[in-house]
Design a protein that fits this description.
Blueprint (H helix, E strand, L loop, with lengths): L8 E4 L4 E5 L10 H4 L7 E5 L15 H14 L5 E6 L1 H12 L4 E7 L9 H13 L8 H8 L6 H8 L2 E4 L2 E4 L3 H12 L13 E6 L7 H10 L4 E5 L6 H4 L1 H12 L5
Parallel strand pairs: 2-3, 2-4, 4-5, 5-8, 8-9
Antiparallel strand pairs: 1-3, 6-7
Helix pairs in contact: 2-3, 4-7, 5-6
Length: 263
């Protein structure tokens, strides 16, 4: 366990609070495309999780610590209970918060992840090593960085997403995410703590892309065990980036959850 950090965040809108948690390599900005109309009726809060975006760096990335960062943000904003929406790693942070601070959670939406351990270490390890190997001193523009990464990361969408972490100041280009820490913490990020095993019975929606492979039979069983009252929805033909690939279906499911009366 580590100390609790003050997360960077953006927020807008008035009404019941909804906190949106991004996935690995992401930031709160990942949600901008799907939160616009929600800000008319809800207070939308988009933090950067530790070691991401503009938030502080720390060598530990265990889920109880990351969940406590979110609880600290809720306290800083003087909120009592919130709806939490989390994608991938952010979904695990949201599930961990249901375990360590259940009274602060009104509703939960988890996007394309389950409370189980994964092994994507080869894929993510390769991505991190590729970014670390990029000669930033030879880069004169973002398109140049994109071209330099193209042979190792052939998917343009993944390159563009990773390049949101490339920043420039008077000293040149740098990565705003601590790649060495993310590489070291990959086993922790991919895991699910065995001691987080208390069922949470509040209103919950688990939304996954059926083409992503992230929520299989083992994951479905774990969701049912830990979140027995959750609605589980699979979207055919949709991959891991549910809110980007199927924004209307995502917004429909979120609106349905938000209109659920407090229990």
């Amino acid at each position: 366990m580590s100390e609790t950090l003050d997360l960077a965040f953006q927020h807008e809108g008035d009404g019941p609070p909804v906190i949106m948690l991004h996935g690995l390599y992401g930031s709160g900005n990942n949600w901008r495309g799907v939160t616009g109309e929600l800000t008319r009726h809800y207070h939308i809060i988009r933090p950067d999780l530790r070691n991401h975006g503009s938030s502080p760096h720390h060598p530990a990335m265990d889920y109880p610590s990351m969940a406590k960062d979110v609880v600290r943000l809720i306290d800083r904003l003087a909120l009592e209970r919130v709806t939490l929406v989390g994608h991938s790693m952010g979904g695990k942070v949201a599930m961990a918060m249901a375990q360590i601070a259940p009274a602060r959670l009104a509703r939960l939406m988890v996007v394309d992840i389950a409370p189980v351990s994964y092994d994507h270490s080869q894929e993510h390890g390769r991505l991190i090593k590729t970014l670390q190997a990029l000669d930033l001193s030879a880069i004169d523009s973002r398109p140049a960085a994109d071209r330099a990464l193209a042979s190792a990361i052939p998917q343009p969408a993944i390159r563009q997403f990773l390049l949101t972490n490339l920043q420039r100041d008077k000293n040149g280009w740098s990565w705003r995410i601590p790649l060495a820490i993310l590489g070291e913490q990959l086993p922790v990020i991919q895991s699910w703590p065995a001691d987080l095993d208390q069922p949470w019975t509040g209103p919950a929606c688990f939304l996954h892309g059926e083409a992503s492979g992230y929520v299989q039979e083992e994951g479905q069983q774990a969701i049912e065990r830990l979140f027995p009252d959750a609605t589980r929805v699979g979207l055919p033909g949709v991959g891991h980036w549910v809110h980007a690939e199927a924004p209307d279906a995502f917004k429909d499911q979120l609106q349905s959850l938000l209109s659920h009366n407090n229990h």
